[in-house]
Amino acid sequence: MDYSTILTLCGFSFLSGFVDAIIGGGGLIQTPAILFSLPQYPVPTLIASTKIPSLCGSLMGAFQYSRRVVVIGKFIGPMMAIAFGASWLGSWTLTRVPNSFMKPFALAILITVFIYTLTKKEFGQVVHQHVSARQQRLRMWLMGAGIGFYDGFFGPGTGSFLVLGFIALIGFDFLKASAHAKLVNAATNLASTLFFMSEGKILYAVAFPMAVANLSGAFLGARLAILKGNQFIRVFFLLIITATIIRFGWDLFD
């Protein structure tokens, strides 16, 4: 493995962290890059090696958002714990069953989300206080279980799904949803990282440099999202959902 390959992967990882900090979906950039650059390694090993960079980016994004956006601490802590356990279970399940059936399901959801977000201009622009505290708690915990398992088992689009859930089910705007999504995504990435470390599947010579790059991109992305606000994040959300739809569609029909 030469230095030029590592530098190239760091460039993609920086872009991945930048995009992921704004609205999620950074895995669409980072994962294909490492699969293409290091074809001599098994796919599970390459996927596992992206988990440390993703974890670092998520932690940086969570830190930046939490300094400027009010977080519902009493609910988000248990949600992160649930998401952690669900992600570990998803990663364990991935080592035992194929995950190909998830792609058509995820593609259908993403197309629906894209159409709804495009046609509903007010979607995610303001905070709607129409959900009771009890309902918020229940919905957040169910989201943590479902999306946490999805991230450990399949992965692409997890950040975007979390943002969507916080907007549609909890009533947050894009900025508040992104802040909470980063915290939960950090928990799911930590679970997957620890699982794959225990399985000995991570290429640390690649993972650590990519982690530094991803963290740097996440720092800039989160600062930009906070500075520009909801409308900017909405546009980015639509772009990433479009890219995810194209990616899943290509995988399904190629």
From TrEMBL:
From the Swiss-Prot or TrEMBL record, give the protein name.
Probable membrane transporter protein
- Name the membrane topology term: Multi-pass membrane protein
Principal location listed in the UniProt entry: membrane
Transmembrane parts of this sequence: 45-63, 75-95, 101-119, 140-170, 202-220, 232-250
| Species classification | Bacteria, Pseudomonadati, Bacteroidota, Cytophagia, Cytophagales
Q: Which InterPro entries match?
A: TM_pro_TauE-like, TSUP
Instruction: Keyword check for Membrane, yes or no.
Output: yes
- Tell me which family the UniProt entry assigns to this protein: Belongs to the 4-toluene sulfonate uptake permease (TSUP) (TC 2.A.102) family.
Note one Pfam family from the annotation. TauE
| Residues forming coiled coils | none
- List UniProt keywords, sorted A-Z: Cell membrane, Membrane, Transmembrane, Transmembrane helix, Transport
Endoplasmic reticulum in keyword set: no
What domain of life? Bacteria
Q: Can you say where in the cell this protein is located?
A: Cell membrane
